[in-house]
């Protein structure tokens, strides 16, 4: 009997102990951009996650609505707006679009995946024990929901206990590239397969690592399926260019000479995206600042952000994300650097975004486009 009582006490203790572990850090975030300027309590019974993005027009309207709800309910209720975007881009956005809500980053998308967020805006309500109480479009979450759930959920938890913060640190290469020439290349092992091109820029060197098709698509700024070459030519390489050298400014020609290959341009016909730019309203290079050795692109599931990137590079990224050739119509100044923030997941939204922000009109067409046929030079 005594043994049973001891066992029961032990089980109760373990249950309480592990329950407390579960309660701590219900929601994972990478970092906080700002805490709430409207909530007046640190310990709250209800926590609302507002999944949003800077490119999402409906999200902005939803955030304004949620801001009103937070003002009306400053106690016992806490709203956090969570995005997967780059912190610097978000900071830049909220400098222009002020908000009193708490803002946080889910850089690796862990919390987005946990909640299976497929469309934005989206909202989820939790109590202090981590039980999901409500989910749906934030505009459908009303004042009466808050009153009802507050009556049923009295337990409170502090903000810093509800959220588990794990700051995302972008991995950067520590290896020092030492280049004796303007261009060097190495053929990589046959068993190395690259799902995508690896691009690094560090210490005055641009490094490309991947198969030849992907490398040439990058240097030619085109959709990779516009590069036609035989399987035996499509080997994997590591290629390094000294920045601002002749080889760097003539990457395709440098590669062709080094590998003894030819390039023939042929016309094909199919669906393409045509960019028509009459009066460009491009951003300057002061909108996003990630640092000199940071990647120039941040590509999410629905949007692209870019720091100091030319239109030709944006065209390259979009063509490969959308799996469609992209053509520029009567526009030659495509090498000047700009900052960019582009939605690409939903076509109509992308069209509106590009026209409103950059003066780029996008149209789908069936027309001629260039294919690049790569062959080995005769010995």
UniProtKB/TrEMBL annotation:
<feature type="domain" description="Alkyl hydroperoxide reductase subunit C/ Thiol specific antioxidant">
    <location>
        <begin position="34"/>
        <end position="119"/>
    </location>
</feature>
<dbReference type="InterPro" id="IPR000866">
    <property type="entry name" value="AhpC/TSA"/>
</dbReference>
<dbReference type="Pfam" id="PF00578">
    <property type="entry name" value="AhpC-TSA"/>
</dbReference>
<dbReference type="GO" id="GO:0016491">
    <property type="term" value="F:oxidoreductase activity"/>
</dbReference>
<dbReference type="GO" id="GO:0016209">
    <property type="term" value="F:antioxidant activity"/>
</dbReference>
<protein>
    <recommendedName>
        <fullName>Alkyl hydroperoxide reductase subunit C/ Thiol specific antioxidant domain-containing protein</fullName>
    </recommendedName>
</protein>
<dbReference type="InterPro" id="IPR050553">
    <property type="entry name" value="Thioredoxin_ResA/DsbE_sf"/>
</dbReference>
<dbReference type="InterPro" id="IPR036249">
    <property type="entry name" value="Thioredoxin-like_sf"/>
</dbReference>
């Amino acid at each position: 009997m005594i043994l049973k009582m001891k066992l029961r006490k032990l089980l109760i203790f373990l249950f309480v102990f592990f329950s407390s572990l579960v309660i701590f850090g219900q929601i994972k975030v990478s970092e906080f951009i700002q805490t709430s300027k409207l909530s007046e309590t640190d310990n709250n019974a209800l926590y609302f996650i507002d999944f949003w993005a800077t490119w999402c027009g409906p999200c902005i309207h939803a955030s304004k609505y949620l801001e009103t709800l937070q003002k009306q309910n400053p106690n016992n209720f806490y709203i956090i707006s969570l995005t997967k975007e780059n912190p610097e881009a978000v900071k830049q956005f909220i400098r222009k679009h002020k908000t009193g809500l708490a803002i946080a980053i889910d850089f690796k998308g862990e919390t987005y995946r946990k909640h299976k967020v497929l469309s934005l805006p989206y909202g989820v309500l939790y109590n202090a024990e981590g039980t999901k109480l409500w989910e749906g479009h934030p505009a459908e979450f009303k004042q009466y929901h808050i009153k009802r759930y507050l009556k049923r959920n009295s337990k409170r938890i502090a903000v810093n206990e509800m959220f588990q913060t794990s700051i995302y640190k972008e991995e950067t290469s520590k290896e020092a590239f030492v280049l004796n020439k303007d261009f060097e290349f190495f053929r990589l092992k046959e068993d190395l397969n690259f799902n995508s091109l690896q691009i690094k820029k560090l210490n005055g060197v641009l490094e490309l690592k991947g198969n030849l098709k992907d490398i040439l698509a990058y240097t030619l700024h085109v959709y990779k399926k516009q590069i036609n070459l035989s399987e035996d030519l499509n080997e994997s390489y590591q290629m390094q260019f000294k920045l601002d050298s002749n080889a760097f400014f003539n990457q395709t020609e440098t590669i062709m000479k080094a590998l003894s290959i030819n390039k023939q341009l042929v016309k094909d016909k199919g669906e393409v995206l045509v960019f028509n730019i009459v009066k460009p309203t491009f951003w300057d290079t002061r909108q996003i600042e990630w640092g000199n050795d940071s990647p120039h692109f941040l590509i999410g599931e629905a949007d692209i952000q870019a720091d100091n990137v030319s239109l030709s590079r944006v065209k390259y990224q979009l063509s490969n994300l959308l799996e469609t050739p992209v053509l520029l119509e009567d526009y030659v100044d495509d090498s000047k650097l700009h900052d960019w923030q582009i939605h690409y997941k939903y076509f109509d939204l992308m069209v509106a975004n590009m026209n409103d922000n950059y003066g780029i009109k996008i149209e789908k067409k069936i027309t001629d486009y260039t294919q690049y046929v790569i062959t080995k030079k005769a010995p």
